[in-house]
Amino acid sequence: MAMIVKVPKSSYFRLAPIFCAAFVICLSSCGRDDSSYSAQLSNSQSQLPVKIVIVTMFEIGEDLGDAPGEFQFWRERRNLFQKLDFPHSHHDLFYNPDSQILGLVTGIGTAKAASATMALGLDDRFNLSKAYWLVAGIAGIDPEDASIGSVVWSSVLVDGDLGYEIDSREMPTDWSTGYFSFKTKKPLAQPRPELPMGEIFTTNKGLRDWAFELTKNLDLMDSSEFQALREAYVDHPAALRPPFVLKGGHLAAMTYWHGALKNAWANELVRYWSDGEANFVTSAMEETGTFQSITYLDNAGLVDKTRFLVLRGGSNFTMQPPELTAAQSLLRESDGYAGLEASLENVYLAGSVVIDELLTGWDQYYENVPTAPELPDKAE
User: Fold this and answer.
1) What Rg value do the Cα atoms of the chain yield, rounded?
2) Mean pLDDT of 20-48
3) Which of 55, 64, 296, 373 has the most beta carbons within 10 angstroms of its beta carbon?
4) Res 243 pLDDT > 50
């Protein structure tokens, strides 16, 4: 028969602190890797301060020591070695407690980028209220404006998915495309809808211009791969230039499109939604999703959307050269981007100039978001 030992009620109060301490120790030791942080911090622990969030979209293989994707150079060279578990998103976070830089890999596409950004913004382990955000990734680049390896600062972000579409083989003969915007009855209808539903976002142009001024004279990495690719674009003088830094409009769309006709559509769409202010230069998939989450987080007082920067490096052209069809050009690209690593180097180079300035002048930039001197209004 089991013996029941009764504990006097007066002993409960003396034993309670011991039970609580044992319970906390048990919780803190179960399933915990000393090199990482769990998804929650107790109320008694302070939040990790974050000065810079590096937003990348993908990695190839491992984060370290193999062929680099968008994250690897940042993790290696910025010493982002403190792992922070992030099971509610695509990829764990990595942090440098000295520089207070946090590395985020969102995953590819609008949905993953939006959800990862929101997950980070709502994660109470971090104080992101004064953090600057730098999207640093590769992109398709318009040969009418720039060359492979060039890097582009963007403020106007246009979404290429929201809208109606019919197959172009069934569209009216006077239409240039089967794609047209909600609240309209034909492509590029005027006046355009006054209240966009997510078709366009505009980040802080003053901060973008400040970043451009810091980096516009950089000598970017060139390569034999870049040279071979651009030599074919004989009808596009900008595509023949060595890599350089510029500003330009950005189109985000989940479909990987390619070709001269789609390139014309991209130019028209960015011009349409920006009222002619922005010129299409780069194409990727994520920015409108990322900045939509940033906007909501700003509404909640968790981040400052005026501290958001977009930097993309051209890893491929958005249309074919004269001697290839659109299909031939796209299929050649699908085998891999010959200039990928050099493009990543140039994104890292330009992004690092801005990050180093922010860190060096943190006493000033903590409260005051930098801006370029007043410049005359002109298209990006």
Assistant:
1) 25
2) 47
3) 55
4) yes
Q: Once rounded to an integer, what is the mean pLDDT over residues 24-32?
A: 38
Terminal alpha carbon distance of the chain? 85
pLDDT tens digits, one per residue of 138-164: 999 999 999 999 999 999 999 999 999
Sign of the torsion formed by the C-alpha atoms of 175, 179, 183 and 189: negative
Least Cα distance to 154 among 97, 106, 202 occurs for 202
- Residue 374 has what pLDDT? 54
Q: Count Cβ atoms below 10 Å from residue 246 Cβ, excluding itself.
A: 19
In degrees and rounded to multiples of 5, residue 104 shows phi and psi of -120, 130
CATH superfamily name and code, 48-161+201-365 = Nucleoside phosphorylase domain (3.40.50.1580)
Global pTM value: 0.86
Q: Where do the domains of the chain lie?
A: 48-161+201-365, 163-197
Contacting residues for 234 by C-beta, under 8 A, at least 6 apart? 240, 321, 322
